């Protein structure tokens, strides 16, 4: 039996993950972290909601964190103190968060993924390949749309796909990304990777990478029809990570895809 500790248990993803855990053999939810009024019994019958990740980390085999960037330092500290592997699905992470993840991975197994679906991780590979083969005269734009509640932009997946495209071209995304355009922007900057963001309704997550050449376009895209695909991937990642030695792991490792 693998006991999963769920951080952000009361959120949209926390609830979806709790349902997948309930349907997965030899897997149980050890407890959750969220606000005290998160509605524990609606998430999973008998679920205990705790205020501190440190307590939960000592009571589970693996932590799964879909909460907020501001909670990440405490969650990583809890994983380190209890030597409990942690899957991080939270997005909106910045350089300082990745530095904390790298430091934690020296001591405990950490898997961070902006998107835990099979489809997105597969197209990440395709985007990298396309960018490597097409050359700099093909303009690359990343488009994404999400539900009206999403608080970070561009999405973590959009940035993941932009990073894959930049890697294919052998450049650093930070040096070439155009994250916003407004007003008299001037012509497109050669070699840059642009991002466009839409928010509305209940969209679970749409992403498209457009390679625009002279007279033709290639579009590589993914549409999430339900949050369950992320939840299934998160539980698969947790079961894979439980018991692994210290290190930073990737969703591609879980799915058997090239990194
Ligand atoms: N990797 C992937 O495949 C996916 C990643 N995500 C990402 O997962 C994260 C969560 O998404 P979603 O479930 O939609 O968001 P929600 O806002 O619905 O859920 C987050 C939950 O975590 C709680 N929470 C946040 N910070 C704290 C804290 N410091 N202490 C206690 N509880 C806290 C929130 O409580 P409160 O609302 O009271 O703050 C909320 O209940 C986002 O970053 C999102 O982008 C989403 C889908 C797929
Ligand atoms: O907030 C969401 O909902 C999602 N967030 C992730 C992201 O930022 O890429 C993954 C997915 O697209 C849904």
Explain what this protein looks like in three dimensions.
The protein has 259 residues and is an alpha/beta fold. The chain has ten helices and twelve strands. The protein folds into two domains: 140 residues, NAD(P)-binding Rossmann-like Domain (Rossmann fold, 3-Layer(aba) Sandwich), CATH 3.40.50; 107 residues, Dihydrodipicolinate Reductase, domain 2. It is 37% helix and 24% strand. The strands form two sheets. Strands 3-2-1-4-5-6-12 form a seven-stranded parallel sheet, with helices on both faces. Strands 8-9-7-10-11 form a five-stranded mixed sheet. The protein is elongated. Bound molecules: NADPH dihydro-nicotinamide-adenine-dinucleotide phosphate and ligand LZUJQKHR. NADPH dihydro-nicotinamide-adenine-dinucleotide phosphate (NDP) binds next to helix 1.
Short structural summary:
37% of the residues lie in helices and 24% in strands. By secondary structure, it is an alpha/beta fold. It folds into two domains: 140 residues, Rossmann fold; 107 residues, Dihydrodipicolinate Reductase, domain 2, CATH 3.30.360.10.
Which helices and strands appear, and what pairs or packs with what?
Blueprint: E1 2-7, H1 12-22, E2 27-33, H2 40-43, E3 49-50, H3 53-57, E4 62-65, H4 72-82, E5 86-88, H5 95-105, E6 109-112, H6 118-134, E7 139-146, H7 156-169, H8 173-176, E8 177-178, E9 193-199, E10 205-212, E11 217-224, H9 228-241, E12 247-249, H10 251-255
Parallel strand pairs: 1-2, 1-4, 2-3, 4-5, 5-6, 6-12, 7-9, 8-9
Antiparallel strand pairs: 7-10, 10-11
Helix pairs in contact: 1-9, 4-5, 6-7
Bound molecules: NADPH dihydro-nicotinamide-adenine-dinucleotide phosphate (NDP) and ligand LZUJQKHR.
EC number: 1.17.1.8
Binding site for (S)-2,3,4,5-tetrahydrodipicolinate: 147, 156-157
Function: Catalyzes the conversion of 4-hydroxy-tetrahydrodipicolinate (HTPA) to tetrahydrodipicolinate.
